[in-house]
Amino acid sequence: MAEPRIVTLPHIASATETTRAAMVDLAVDNILAALAGHPARTPLPGGAEAHA
User: Fold this and answer.
1) Which of 9, 30, 11 is nearest to 19 (CA)?
2) Confidence check: pLDDT of 24 > 60
């Protein structure tokens, strides 16, 4: 059933330059921590930290 009053858009809240830059910084921090043998700032549930 079509609904002419609804517009569906993708989630764009993270599309600001500031947010994207923060996401890059966090990814770099996680990579550097892992390479230095430290836990990631934002580990994945069930990841290596959960089994250590």
Assistant:
1) 11
2) yes
Name the band, by pLDDT with cuts 50, 70 and 90, for residue 26.
very high
Cβ proximity of 19 and 27 under 8 Å = no
**Angle at CA of residue 20, ends 12 and 34, nearest 5°:** 125
Give the Cα separation of 22 and 36 in Å (integer): 21
- Spatial distance between the Cα atoms of 13 and 45, rounded to a whole number of angstroms: 24
For the whole model, what pTM was predicted? 0.60
Cα 9–chain centre separation: 20
The dihedral built from the CA positions of residue 42, 48, 50 and 52, taken in this order, carries a sign that is negative
Token readout for 37 is 């043998």
